[in-house]
Design goal:
Layout (H helix, E strand, L loop, with lengths): L12 E6 L6 H23 L1 H10 L9 H7 L5 H19 L3 H24 L20 H20 L4 H24 L5 H24 L3 E8 L20 H4 L15 H12 L13
Helix pairs in contact: 1-2, 1-8, 4-5, 4-6, 5-6, 5-8, 6-7, 6-8
Length: about 300
């Protein structure tokens, strides 16, 4: 076997990263399903007895006055004054890394849309506060919950920006997704325990927020995106051609091994075939020069 030599690794080059797009049909279908569930759930909460009784059953005094300070602080994770600065940090880092305004535009549209939809639904439903015991259409603003809608949209959008625009491992994505789910559970528990919302208010807020989040993430993933950040990527190392070896003989042809006065491949009279081959090699002399030929492993 001949040894091969590798060429010197060329300098690394720079190129721009492109993100892969996904079909929009799945996101539109999910958003339509969530919107339909919200409409159906709202009708059931207003008119159907089991859902009304469930709200009344969960709306009670849980005697958590000693934990009011802690629960009140935990409930703020859904307030715009707390969650929007967190989203702003994630958006700023993502936009700066890719030198693009797209993450900021995406966040602005999502936050504006969810708050607009929640406001319209609150004015249309006019649900009273749980402590007062008033139902729908009584000049209230409880249904749906803006806290839960903001929680799923803002923190879900943070997860999307980090996982879609960043280079994170699958384990990190699972951890971030678990954090988002935990925040939603904490938001639901604190609001229900403190009697700041009906249970159906919280579910309705999640449905509205999930609809907006599904549309936002789906449209962003479907539109092509070109990062303006230059990323250094290594190039493959080309393998050089093997060096020629002047000491490598070529195999002799049968015509060269046979005696000159006999047919090719026929043994000469009175001599064995190994003796004839030995004599023929002696008469031919040294093998021809093969310095210019190339061989592979």
């Amino acid at each position: 076997m001949l040894e091969t030599t590798r060429a010197t690794t060329p300098p690394r080059h720079r190129r721009r990263r492109r993100s892969h797009t996904r079909p929009l049909r799945g996101a539109l279908t999910l958003a339509a399903v969530l919107a339909a569930i919200f409409v159906a759930y709202t009708w059931l909460v207003i008119h159907w007895g089991p859902f009304i009784h469930l709200d009344d059953l969960l709306n009670r005094n849980y005697h958590v006055k000693n934990l009011f300070f802690i629960l009140g602080r935990l409930d703020r994770i859904g307030q715009r004054a707390v969650c929007l600065p967190i989203l702003a940090v994630v958006v700023a880092v993502t936009a700066w890394r890719h030198r693009s305004w797209r993450p900021a535009l995406l966040a602005a549209i999502a936050v504006f849309s969810v708050n607009l939809l929640v406001l319209i639904a609150k004015l249309a439903m006019s649900r009273g506060h749980p402590i007062s015991g008033r139902g729908f259409f009584t000049w209230g603003d409880m249904y749906p919950s803006g806290h839960t809608a903001n929680t799923i949209v803002v923190y879900g959008l943070c997860f999307h920006l980090i996982s879609h625009y960043g280079q994170v491992s699958a384990r990190t994505k699972r951890i971030l997704l678990g954090v988002v789910c935990a925040l939603c559970v904490v938001m639901t528990t604190t609001s229900l325990t403190l009697q700041w919302h009906w249970f159906s208010d919280l579910v309705g807020g999640f449905l509205v927020g999930g609809t907006v989040l599904a549309l936002t993430v789906g449209i962003d993933a479907a539109l092509p995106f070109r990062s303006h950040r230059l990323v250094v990527l290594p190039v493959s190392e080309p393998v050089a051609e093997p060096a020629a070896s002047p000491a490598s003989p070529r195999p002799l042809e049968p015509a060269e091994l046979a005696p000159a006065d006999s047919p090719v491949g026929a043994p000469a009279a009175g001599r064995s075939q190994p003796e004839q081959l030995s004599l023929r090699r002696t008469s031919l002399g040294s093998p021809p020069d093969v310095a210019g030929r190339r061989f592979r492993h």
